[in-house]
Amino acid sequence: MKRVSTLKCGSFLLSVTTVLIAVLGAGLTSNCQVTKKEALSVQLANQTPASSPATRKVFVERSHTDAQGETMPYLLFVPAGYDKTKPYPLVLWLHGGGTRGNDLKLLLGHGDQTGIGFFARADNQAKYPSLILAPQCPQNKFWGNSDSDHPTNEMRLVLEILDRVRADYSVDSGRLYVMGMSLGGYGTWDILVRRPRTFAAAIPICGGGNPSKAAVIARTPIWVFHGDEDESVNVSESRRMVAALKKAGGQPRYTEYKGVGHNSWVPAFKEPDFLSWLFAQSRSR
User: Fold this and answer.
1) What is the pLDDT of residues 1-14, one digit of tens each?
2) What is the CATH number of the domain that holds 54?
3) Could you say which of 17, 258, 265, 267 has the lowest number of CB atoms within 10 Å?
């Protein structure tokens, strides 16, 4: 595997049920297709290593119910030694298509090498203590619709959950981050447009958005990842968003992996400055 380039272009009704669950991730798969390349996605997802008992982490399983009675389950990680008098960064994770449904354990299927398990790992939390929020999209639904002026019902629920967590915990309003892969990559682009002044940085992996809306988020630090042999989400989806951002005066960072298909999140999480870049970003409160 060779990396083509890393370009630095210019620069409620609330219903809560709490269950402690250990992140073991063994035997769970998380394919993230947005087209019908299911077999390819499953194969790639099964290559993701599971977490080991030594890196076991505890999340809290919750469910949000809105005023109309619609619900969305989500996982929340609170750092060890949480101190409500100190502000903490928050990472919002939007999963891929293969982990849609109503079983939150599916979100843990990538172990501690990528996704939420990676952020919750003890060594990473020691350097970057942070809250981790991971909602779950229902089957056959989508995080976003970039062609619409209105958020999908699922995105509306995500925003409500985000607002609730920010109200309940000591969250640093200048250090909110959003990222996702595949279906969640599309969701990342979508939520940025819905809340352009909320996030300090974003990492959309093998996703896509609406280039005509790039100017709204041009000033947000964004690191985009994609594989040039992705058969599920064509690499042109990320390329055109990066081009639109630069045209609007933005300075996106773009990493495209040569010979990589629909699993570019695997090398992305191995980038040496992946975490340091993300947590270095902040915006004025």
Assistant:
1) 545 444 443 333 33
2) 3.40.50.1820
3) 17
